[in-house]
Amino acid sequence: MPLKAANRVLVTQQPPARYWQEETDGEKKGAEDGGRAAEEEPRTQKPKQEEHQRDGKRFISGKSDPFPGPAPIPEDRLQKFKRKEKTKKHRRQHYKLRDIITRSEEASEMAQKQAARFDILLPEDAGFLEGDEEEDTYTISQEDIADAVDITSGAKYFNLKLSQFGPYRVDYSKTGRCMLQHSPQL
């Protein structure tokens, strides 16, 4: 459809072409380009490796994975985070509802497995210091405690040597992340 521009030049407007539609002027385009368009081959993407194909392969170092597949989750941990029983699905009617219920159950099952996995990684309950029968707990140094506990708790250990302006008071935030130290004599 010809259009008139402000400077009286006629411009033809072509409908937008879609990539899935074949060009009707393909031979003309090839002739205009000197045959380059006909010579080009369509580029294809390499197919992605599927997980089951990679399981049998070795790494660059030549070693194979000693623990193939996902980590096993103990059944008692899974039962701890179990949400509900699966619902009965209708056969014919409510196909959209059936699809929604199926997706919800799959998401619930995945969340149950993830919660069971992360529960293993959580730190244990807070403990206490228990000495022998005749040993007083105040004689145990913090270095001994830091060496005896797990790595994450041992990394939180710090030592303050405060010989001036004592006595000091210490306040922690609710989360235990921040500490405020103050002295009434300052």
From TrEMBL:
<feature type="compositionally biased region" description="Basic residues">
    <location>
        <begin position="80"/>
        <end position="94"/>
    </location>
</feature>
<dbReference type="GO" id="GO:0000462">
    <property type="term" value="P:maturation of SSU-rRNA from tricistronic rRNA transcript (SSU-rRNA, 5.8S rRNA, LSU-rRNA)"/>
</dbReference>
<dbReference type="GO" id="GO:0030686">
    <property type="term" value="C:90S preribosome"/>
</dbReference>
<dbReference type="InterPro" id="IPR040315">
    <property type="entry name" value="WDR46/Utp7"/>
</dbReference>
<dbReference type="GO" id="GO:0032040">
    <property type="term" value="C:small-subunit processome"/>
</dbReference>
<feature type="region of interest" description="Disordered">
    <location>
        <begin position="1"/>
        <end position="94"/>
    </location>
</feature>
<feature type="compositionally biased region" description="Basic and acidic residues">
    <location>
        <begin position="26"/>
        <end position="58"/>
    </location>
</feature>
<protein>
    <submittedName>
        <fullName>Uncharacterized protein</fullName>
    </submittedName>
</protein>
